[in-house]
Amino acid sequence: MSVVFRRNVARMKGYRPGEQPQEGGFIKLNTNENPYPPSPKVRRAILEEAKDALRLYPDPDSTRLRRQAALTYGFDLSQVIAGNGSDELLAMIARAFIGEGDALCCPVPTYTLYETLIRIQEGRLIGIPYPADYALPGALFRSRARVVIVASPNSPSGTAVPLSVLSRLADRAAGLLVIDEAYADFAEETALSLARERENVIVLRTFSKSFSLAGMRIGLGFAHPRIVEGLSKVKDSYNLNRLSIAAGEAAMLDVAWMERNAAAIRKTRERLVAELPAVGFEPFPSQANFVLARRAGGKTAKPVYEALKARKILVRFFDTPRLSDCLRITVGTDGEIDEILRALREIRP
Ligand SMILES: Cc1ncc(COP(=O)(O)O)c(C=O)c1O
Q1: Which atom of ligand 1 is nearest to the CA of 218?
Q2: By C-alpha distance, which of 59, 28, 92 is closest to 248?
Q3: d(Cα 104, Cα 149) in Å, to the nearest integer?
Q4: Going from the N-terminus, what domains does the chain have, and what CATH number goes with each?
Q5: Whose CA is nearest to atom 13 of ligand 1?
Q6: Of 203, 245, 326, 338, which has the fewest CB atoms closer than 10 Å, so is most exposed?
Q7: pLDDT in tens, 71-109
Q8: CA-110 nearest atom, ligand 1
Q9: Max CA-CA distance within the chain?
Q10: Residue 265 and residue 332: Cα distance in Å, rounded?
Q11: How far is ligand 1, taken at its centre, from the CA of residue 319, in Å?
């Protein structure tokens, strides 16, 4: 017997999400979750759905969720696709558009799952380095790749690309432009208008961050009906479970709840940004629910990450040449941010 993986799978590293400690007691500022709970309407909708419907398969098209998304964001139902988190939408895009040798282009550093998905497809990743200020690199506008992906706000930098620039990129793109707006509710602008107007743009949203529902795995894509139809062919047949469909719909019926939380997080973010220099870290301008900050003097941030972890505070450290002097800190509650600032004062990086 011989168990043989496809060569690219055998060679690749799997995607490694940020640590999810299974024991409690951590201040968890490493994977950009929301420190506040979701709307009480979400809990009620989940309990209702859990009563006696669970023995039946869910709606394969997540119609209730998509219909509410269409109403909330001003689209037609045919322009909305739902995913098991926006990660699944990204996987669908890779599956539907990237075959062996096909190119996907994105500015880097960015969300590293993009690279994993391309490796699975045996595609080619063309990563164009962001300049120091994280403005979109000019070469991206000249790319002939089948798919261009821009996360805006970007992770891990937290920086956002102005809508006018994304609009120009959509004009120039040779194929599909994916705008990953996982953090848009914390930002000044959204590119949803491009998804309405252009036939080559898909905008992705997630309920994991602003809606406080990372545990439910809900994502949305907004695009021309032709794109939605094509992507639907490659999704898992029942990609969202009943509880997630109900939870996502209920969350959008209480957008005001989410917006209050997002406003509180933006306020805390500004305080964190203002106070980081005094504890030895220079923040990049953030429009997300996290802040990337560079250790003064360009020294590796790993010992600081470890010292924080020893104090039960988790942040994200990326061991790559460009990011090894940085920490990415999720914006938690004001109390949690007080704790990390106090710890950093003690550690004296
Ligand atoms: C840029 C970006 N896109 C997508 C995602 C994935 O979100 P989801 O939880 O909806 O799969 C993340 C999660 O951290 C992210 O940072």
Answers
A1: 10
A2: 59
A3: 8
A4: 18-37+256-347 (3.90.1150.10), 40-253 (3.40.640.10)
A5: 182
A6: 338
A7: 999 999 999 999 999 999 999 999 999 999 999 999 999
A8: 1
A9: 62
A10: 7
A11: 20
